[in-house]
């Protein structure tokens, strides 16, 4: 073990009771006996089931929806449309000041993605709800759809948003911007210019337990909502806003999540199930099928990231310009915030004196993207580290060395104007090299996060 | 079509249920009998979370019409859980942290039970083959394999 690692290990051992030790899982007995109660394990007498009527097309106008055959299905209870939702238009990040509202709980006159909910059907059994959904007749007029971020920004692309663009607006700008130093001057001084484009695909979180909730009316006029959300209070607040009821009307019960990975932080099933409980006076369960989980629930966004770096012969990166596009799909969900985190991190954990970053939150006709492990930092890290290898290869330097030279030191200024105070990259790389059995040369081993001397 | 009465042995006692044709064993367990240790990750044979034992063999209860188990023996996770303490396989899962969200655990435990009943000393490859139809999205496969090997050791020493 390295000096630093063993010092840390002994400090951990002495100071902490739990950190650094294995402790029995508090929920473990429930998990191995099957006694843990997941949301789908909950049911109540008289409970109804909710299923969505979904758009079969990627983009279109809703001309008419005919429920007359659906209503004849034995067990059909009622249908909910956008007219039933008190505040139908929402955006979940309104809680942190993001706007305007732009996603309908139930589509009004237009659908922007395949699978978009148009109406909810409540029935005595899940089978009856599914049967009724299959009998709803949709009259839709299909419109041209766009599936690529750069296509969506072309002048002839179909416009998806009421404000007339296919991008989110950040304080009057079409993208989230970071400016630091003078990137063009940096490129002019550089010995090498290294450019590359990186693409990542959308990824479905695919939790083993699908998204679900049960909303139950209580005799005191409140509603208890059992949910597997990863964001209990966030979801409760949004549900109250959508239903225009005081928060005190809602009692959210959660914490048991059969896998989330960021896929269960959107406010999707709770508002409509609670509304159905209000309208019927009965408990209502809304559980995604596996197909809905895979095809309709939000994904990690697809990314396209253009890098241009100016690098010196000695390995220092002196300029980096990044233009990134995230495919938000049809609606915001968490993507406007994902973009901000991406912008703050896409220069990497490296000190670069001249940085220029533009990150676009682009709308397309794909299912909405949202949060997933790392909020936009994961694709940034993928691109940054591929780029570091490419730089090393181009200038003929060892890939470890290029990272040690450029790694943040305490006191470095980051492009978004935050001083680095807790750099650990060099120490982490030393520990990683040791674990990997990769010997590092003496001059790298001498480097420290608290020493800003880079040569 | 009219409902039918189906009788089978569940966790050591005879049960009788009235079901519509093609009702799955999973639906009967979870919704009619309220035994929810058997999970429901996909209802299309893709995840293994609904695995139970029929005459000792692991089957996906979401694909099996309950009429097919008429007169046969079904064991669920509830059936191997002692009144006090844990079954050695459960203990091995708990001690080896072979549980994260826990949603795959009931299916995994039942599959490993079937394996160890017929092969008390499996190789790692045999454990991997046994759980091939069970998805753990939390990616705890390594700890699940360790738990299975630990369970085999424990069962041989009891
Ligand atoms: S629920 Fe049966 S295999 Fe997934
Ligand atoms: S522990 Fe979550 S799916 Fe296996």
What does this structure look like?
- With 455 residues, chain A is α+β, with helices and mostly antiparallel strands.
- Among the domains of chain A are: 3-36, no CATH class; 176-203 and 299-445, Aldehyde Oxidoreductase, domain 4.
- Chain A has helices at 3-15, 28-33, 126-134, 149-152, 183-189, 232-243, 270-280, 290-295, 335-345, 377-395, 399-406, 425-435, 442-445, and strands at residues 48-54, 60-66, 76-80, 89-90, 103-104, 110-111, 117-123, 137-142, 176-180, 192-200, 203-204, 212-217, 223-227, 250-253, 284-287, 299-300, 302-311, 317-329, 355-363, 369-370.
- In chain A, helix 9 (335-345) links the parallel strand 18 and strand 19.
- In chain A, helix 6 (232-243) packs across helix 7 (270-280), helix 9 runs parallel beside helix 10 and helix 10 (377-395) crosses helix 11 (399-406).
- The radius of gyration of chain A is 26 Å and the shape is globular.
- Chain A starts with a helix and ends in a 10-residue tail after the last helix.
- Chain B has 158 residues and is of the alpha+beta class.
- Chain B has 2 domains: 4-80, Ubiquitin-like (UB roll) (Roll), CATH 3.10.20.30; 88-156, DNA polymerase, domain 1 (Orthogonal Bundle), CATH 1.10.150.
- Chain B has 6 helices and 5 strands, in the order E-E-H-E-E-E-H-H-H-H-H.
- A 5-stranded mixed beta sheet of chain B has the order 2-1-5-3-4, with helices on both faces.
- In chain B, helix 3 (88-95) crosses helix 6.
- Chain B starts with a strand and ends with a helix.
- The structure holds FE2/S2 (inorganic) cluster (2 copies).
- One FE2/S2 (inorganic) cluster is lined by residues 40-43, 45-50, 60, 62 of chain B.
